[in-house]
Design a protein that fits this description.
single chain; alpha/beta; seven-stranded mixed β-sheet; 11 helices; 13% strand
Length: 279
């Protein structure tokens, strides 16, 4: 884990991002007379780095923000993946180090959403609210598992990552960063992650989390995520599930204005953005 001392600088708008050296800690600015700024924690997906949250870092300067390098990704791509529970404890440790009071708003996409659920299950006292998106937790079909194993053979190829970037709706520098980061990922780590997620990602003791949870899926994502919602609601009855019309998996990059609007409404007052639709 990179230290807060090394990563406290906030990237300026328009600055060049690096696929493996994006800061983890972004101090917020509280308005005069207001209490200390709340904290947003962003957990990236299983084929990108923490740089993918840059559009959110730029838009939420009134919050303290943590954009973690998850184990085996970004600045930590040389590390060995040690499981979802270990990753969740890693996230919790940084939250405990950086947040002096109050719970955090936890935001996760894909693998980051699964890890967010594990953080909430294992350390519910740290979490004030959650928003997860593109998060499959019900397990994959045999066909999907076969596709995943085939993809493992391609992760070292630039063309594969460029193709995936197009499928996610990425453009310009995001496509380049996505490719630069993707070819660094280690096949053995990706295989270990797939083995965990393919069997289902719901953690034990998730019912211990009693806070608000908004679970989203891009309408153009595979149906696997939607199929997970029933299992999620069984374990977290207060969970609200919605679809985002027209969006692919990585929609925080595809349409950051919409993502930021949905997120701000949720963390401000628990509101549901009018664009979201019930399934």
């Amino acid at each position: 884990m990179t230290s807060s001392k090394d990563s406290a600088a906030k990237p300026a708008q328009g600055a060049v991002r690096d696929a493996t050296d994006y800061p983890e800690v972004h101090p917020g600015r509280a308005a005069a007379g207001q209490r200390q700024a709340q904290t947003l924690v962003f957990l990236h997906g299983g084929n990108v780095g923490n740089w993918s949250w840059d559009p959110q870092v730029l838009a939420f300067g009134d919050f303290n923000i943590l954009t973690l390098h998850l184990p085996a990704f970004g600045a930590r791509f040389e590390e060995t993946w040690d499981g979802l529970e270990s990753a969740a404890d890693d996230v919790a440790a940084l939250i405990a180090d950086e947040v002096s009071e109050g719970g955090v708003h936890l935001v996760g996409i894909s693998l980051g959403g699964v890890i967010a659920l594990h953080v909430a299950a294992r350390h519910p006292e740290l979490v004030e609210s959650m928003l997860i998106t593109g998060t499959p937790v019900a397990g994959a079909s045999a066909g999907a598992r076969a596709v995943h194993r085939m993809q493992l053979k391609l992760i070292g190829s630039e063309w594969y990552w460029r193709f995936q970037a197009g499928a996610y709706g990425m453009v310009d520098d995001e496509r380049e960063l996505f490719t630069e980061h993707g070819v660094k990922l280690k096949a053995q780590n990706m295989r270990a992650i797939m083995d965990e997620l393919d069997s289902g990602g719901l953690p034990e003791h998730l019912e211990s989390y009693q806070g608000p949870l908004l679970a989203l899926v891009g309408a153009k994502e595979p149906k696997l995520v939607q199929k997970s919602f029933a299992a999620l609601r069984d374990r977290v009855p207060q969970a609200i599930t919605r679809a985002v019309p027209g969006m692919h998996h990585q929609w925080n990059i595809e349409n950051p204005i919409l993502f930021n609007s949905v997120l701000r409404r949720w963390i401000t007052d628990g509101g549901i953005h009018q664009v979201l639709v019930e399934l």
